[in-house]
Amino acid sequence: MKLEDQINNDIKEAMKAKARVRLEALRGVKKEIIEAKTAKGAGDEVSDEDIIRIIQKMVKQRKDAAELFNSQNREDLAEKEMEEIEAIKNYLPAQLSKEELETAVKAIIEKAGATSMKEMGKVMGMASKELAGRAEGKEISAMVKVLLG
Length: 149
Known about the structure:
Distance between the termini: 43 Å
CATH topology of the largest domain: Hypothetical Protein Yqey, Chain: A, domain1
Number of strands: 0
Largest sheet: none
Mean pLDDT: 88
Strand content: under 5%
């Protein structure tokens, strides 16, 4: 089953269960998918990889918003953002552990033949493609800095 179909089915389930926050989060994902489909040059089709990128972006936006709300002592709004994150991150692939990330980045560094921080951009480009959806960019960057530095 395509990821988009799974999300549509889960929207129906959330409606039946009257899970308001989950429904709102999934409708937000669906809206982003529709916008991606209708974007210029998209060809009316969105792959599962594109949907994963959309969801990653949405999770990051919600984390940033939750941090902002917490810094402004608006725990009620921060809690809502965190609930939405929980509702949509189920569609992301399993995240790599620190050890798995380190192993993967070491293999990418070897493949790239990188030996110094000057080659970080090259390594980051490869790592971002290979680890897309399984690790956040910040985590990948920090690991590359540690291993090259």
